[in-house]
Amino acid sequence: MFFQRQIRFALGILCALLLSVPIPLWGSETLVAQPSSSSNATESMKADIQLGQRLYRKHCLMCHGKYGEGQFGPNLADNYWIYGNRTEDLVRVVTEGIPEKGMVRWKEKISSESIYNVVAFIETFQGTNPPNPKAPQGQEVLGQPTALTVALLDTPPAEKKPIGAISLPSGSSEQAPVDLQMGKVVYTKHCLMCHGKYGEGQFGPNLTDNFWIHGNTTQDLIRVISEGVAEKGMVSWKAKLSAQDIQNVVSFIESLQGTNPPRAKAPQGEEY
Predict the structure, then answer these.
(1) Distance in angstroms (rounded) separating the CA atoms of residues 101 and 98
(2) What angle do CA 153, 157, 158 make, to 5 degrees?
(3) Is the pLDDT score of 169 beyond 50?
């Protein structure tokens, strides 16, 4: 009985030691190393990358390899890029595809939010040196931070409290309470692709700084969203969104002011 207790105790120590040893990256089913507890990455950004991982496994692995090493498609882990290495470059390529190379337009198959998530995951491959990598293609680009770096070093913009009530377009009720969360839903669905996940700006301008092209008042934002800016490619949303939706999304956009998101687009327009 004494020896049995001793054996059980030794086995317990051995199991504890084995569980404390990290599993090598390439021998594990986990494709991306998890940030340490000392990282100030937010749970939201980690969740985005994890969602991107699942999308990558489902849609991208066949062409680019399990670890981004490249198969039919190019290596995503080295510093060579065919169409640019910036986040907006990757978003554009995933969104519009490269038909002549056999890459489909993913905007027809997955949401803009999903595209951003998979791009965030793709950027975690940088510098991982996977086994059996495909030979470099394109031009070498060095020194640009990846989304993983941003995720580990920066926090996403904090949402401000609702601003109460704002005026609606003519013909609507004059005042109504805003719903910031619903504004975020509308923004994510319709605005994220052009203005960035945190309002940092992509094809459209940065919405977090003090520079505005068409004015910075609540009424200015309502007018621009309602009527659009046709010459800049922005559609009129009054036929697609309700007055309440416009109110909510304007409130959410105003909550982005001064949040200083990572990789913000250069100022455009006049400073207010």
Answers:
(1) 5
(2) 115
(3) no
At 131-152, the pLDDT tens digits run 999 999 999 887 544 444 333 3
Per-residue pLDDT tens over the stretch 83-103 = 988 888 888 899 898 888 888
Place of tokens 């105003």: 254
Structure tokens at 33: 């190393």
Q: How far is CA 169 from the centre of its chain?
A: 31
Query: What's the rounded Cα separation, in Å, for the pair 260 and 73?
Result: 35
The more confident residue out of 7 and 142 is 142
More confident position, 92 or 156: 92
For every residue of the chain, DSSP letters joined together read -HHHHHHHHHHHHHHHHHHTSPPPGGGSS--SPPPPTT----HHHHHHHHHHHHHHHHHTHHHH-TTS--SSSPPSSSSEESS--SHHHHHHHHHH-BGGGTB--GGGTS-HHHHHHHHHHHHTTTT---SSPPPP-SEE--SPPPHHHHHHH--PPPPPPP--B----TTS-S--B--HHHHHHHHHHHTHHHH-TTS--SSSPPSSSSEESS--SHHHHHHHHHH-BGGGTBPP-TTTS-HHHHHHHHHHHHHTTT---TTPPPP-SEE-
Are residues 73 and 64 in contact, defined by beta-carbon separation less than 8 angstroms? yes
Q: Which domains does the chain have, with CATH numbers?
A: 39-153 (1.10.760.10), 180-271 (1.10.760.10)
Is pTM, for the whole model, over 0.70? no
